[in-house]
Amino acid sequence: MHARKRRKEEGFTLVELIVVVAILGFLLSIAIPRYLTARTTAAQAATKANLHQLASSMELYMTEHPGEGDTYPDNATSWLSAYIPKAPVPPAGGTSKYKYKQLQKNSPGDSYAIWDPNPYGGKYFAAGPGGAIGEGNSAEDAVSNATGITDPDLSNPVDLNW
After folding, report:
1. Is 142 helix (H, G, I), strand (E, B) or coil?
2. Residue 52 has what pLDDT?
3. What keywords is this UniProt entry annotated with (predicted)?
4. Residue 69 lies in a domain
5. Which of 34, 95, 123, 137 is packed most tightly, with the most Cβ within 10 A?
6. Which domain holds residue 51?
7. Cα 127 from Cα 92, distance rounded (Å)
């Protein structure tokens, strides 16, 4: 009788294990989507902050160099390092770089765009003159929302890397 009692207390029953696995599965089904949403939200916030920093540096350059007219420079990497010691990297990481292009060169609405080529949560982000941040379903939409330029030409951009 004593041996029988000890064997009964040695482990968990199948029902107990199934209940524990079900509870863990339920908790994970709640935690994982929240974690992924938080990650996407953090990447979007980091992208907006980086774009705002780059656009602010662009505006500071234009303020400090009034003799160069109202035309934004063709190649932002040649002078941005004076304002930002190291080029910010998009949250996507890897070899990805923020993109820059002067838009409407030598026209009354001379403008520029800085954008992230990576979508976060299905959204693209861009910055334009005055530090305006735009978002959209494509890089072109984001640039258009940031600059007010419809159908912007984003071919041959400059990688912001120094």
Report:
1. helix
2. 94
3. Membrane, Methylation, Transmembrane, Transmembrane helix
4. yes
5. 123
6. 47-159
7. 18
The single-letter DSSP state of residue 117 is: S
Q: Is 35 domain-assigned? A: no
Two tokens at 67?
């003799």
Q: How many independent structural domains does the chain possess? A: 1
SS3 38: helix
Cβ atoms of residues 151 and 69 within 8 Å: no
How many C-beta atoms lie closer than 10 Å to residue 135's C-beta? 17
Q: What is the DSSP letter of 90?
A: -
**42 in any annotated domain:** no
Task: Name the DSSP class of 130.
Answer: G
pLDDT tens, residue by residue, 83-117 = 888 889 899 877 789 999 988 765 555 789 999 99
Stated pTM of the model: 0.78
